[in-house]
Amino acid sequence: MLLLFHFFAPFLMQLLQASVSCHPGGLSTTCAVTADPMGKSLTAARRQVEWEPLKSSVSWKGKTVNNTKIILVFCLVLSLLFVAGYLASDRNATTDKAPGRNATTDKAPGRIAATGKAPGRIAATSKAPGRIAATNKAPDRIAATGKAPDRNVTTTRAPDKYLTLNLGRKATMKLALIPAGKFMMGSTLSAEEVAGRFALSGAAGILQITAGDFTDEHPRRQVTIGKPFYMGVTEVTQAQWKAVKGSSPWARQSYTRDKADHAAGYISWNDAMMFCKMLSKKTGHTVRLPTEAEWEYACRAGTTTAFSCGDDPSKLGDYAQYRGNTYENKEKYAHSAGAKQPNAWGLYDMHGNVYEWCADWYADSYANADALGPTGPPAGKERVARGGSWRSVPAHCRAARRTRFSPDSLSATFGFRVVVESAAGVD
Ligand SMILES: [Ca+2]
C-alpha cells in the first residue's frame, strides 16, 4: 500500500490543486461557465461543468497524462489489492481451521500411545484413528487366547471352524473342524442288499459285486466321537507331500500325473505315518491319520445314506472322482483334490479319487469294537483304507465300505488325509 501511495501521490496532488484553483480544464470550468462571454445557456454550461473535469489532465515528468486514465488505473489497482487481500485472508482462515481438525483427531494420542505410531502421521489424515483402531484388535486377540503367535498356524475364516498349516515351500494345508458327536457306524443295508442294489449288469472280473465283499460293515452300532478334531479338507496333494517330505513317490510311475494340486498317490501307510510325524514336528501340533471311526463319521457328516450326497449312484459324479468319470473317460489317474463338491462339513473327495489310509489295524467285524472313540484292534496284518478311488465302482465308494492293505504296499490309488487334534495349541 505504501508503494502504491508513493507511485500515485504526484498525480493525486496535481488533481487536488486543479480542483481548487480553477485551473483551465479542471473543476475551475464552473467559474468559466458563469462568465461565458458567448452567452451559452445555463443547461449547456452545467453539462460542460459536469464533463469538463473528465477531460482535464496533469503533467508528469514533462508529459501530459489524462486524469481519467489515472483514476481508472488507480481504481483497478485498488480492486486488485482488495481481491488479493481477500484471498489471502481466506487462506489464512482456512489454515485457521486446522486446529479444529486437529481437535477432531485429538482422540488419536491415546491410541497412539497404544500403537507407538508417530502423532504427525495420524494427524495428517482423519482416517488414521480407524486404522489404528483396527490394528488394536490384534493385541486383544492375543491377550484373549494367551498364546504366542505361531508362524505355522494361521486362521483363514472363523478361528473355530478352520485351521491352516503352513508347510513351507509356499504350500499350506487347510483343515476343517469336525465336531464331537455320536453316529451310527456301519451300513444300513445288509451285505446282500448292497450287492443287489449296486450290482453292475454284465460286470466281470474285479467289477463283480458279491455279498461277501460287504460283511465287514456290520454289525452297525452307535459310536461316540468324544473330542472335536480338525481334518484336512482335501486328500494330501503332491505339493503338500513334497513340501513336507521332499520326495515324489508317484514320479515315473504309471497311472499318475505330475501336478501340484493332484492327490498324492503311491503313498504307503508307513509313508503316510512318517509324513504325519514330520508335520507334527514342523508345526508343533499332533498330526496323525484319522481312526476308521473318525473317518466314517466325517465322511457321513450327519447322513446315514450310502454316500454323503444320498443313495443314488447317478449323483456321485458331482461329488467324486470315481470309475464312472475318470477311468471310463480314459483319465486313469488321481485327479485334482477338491475339484468336486464337498460334503456338509466341507470335506472334498471323501468318496473316490484316492483311498485314504486310516490309523487302525483291520478287523473283519465290528462285533468287538469299542463304542467310545474306537481305534481298532491292537494288532493285525493290514491297515484300513477308506472311500474308494478313481478306479472304484460306486459300491466301493460308499461311506460304510471298508478296504485293507498291507502297510507297506503302494498303488496309484493309495493316498491319505490327516487330522490335527483340537487340544490346546490350536486356536
Ligand atoms: Ca478319497
What report would you give on this structure?
This protein is an alpha+beta fold and 427 residues long. 34% of the residues lie in helices and 14% in strands. The protein has two domains: 2-91, no CATH class; 163-421, paralog of FGE (formylglycine-generating enzyme). The protein is built from twelve helices and 14 strands. The chain is elongated and about 125 Å long. The two termini are 74 Å apart. Calcium ion (CA) binds next to loops.
> What is the SS-derived class?
alpha+beta
Estimate the helix proportion, in percent: 25-40%
In the CATH hierarchy, the architecture of the largest domain is: Alpha-Beta Complex
- With strands numbered from the N-terminus, the spatial order across the biggest sheet is 3-4-5-8-14-9
Rg from alpha-carbon coordinates:
46 Å
CATH class of the largest domain: Alpha Beta
- DSSP strand count: 14
Question: Distance between termini?
Answer: 74 Å
Shape: elongated
Poorly predicted sequence stretches spanning 5 or more consecutive residues: 1-5, 15-56, 89-149
Q: Major sheet, described briefly?
A: 6 strands, antiparallel
Strand content: 5-15%
Q: Please identify which CATH superfamily of the largest domain we are dealing with.
A: paralog of FGE (formylglycine-generating enzyme)
Bound molecule kinds, no repeats: calcium ion
CATH topology of the largest domain: paralog of FGE (formylglycine-generating enzyme)
Question: Order of SSEs, N→C?
Answer: HHHEEHHHHHEEEEHEEHHEHEEEEE
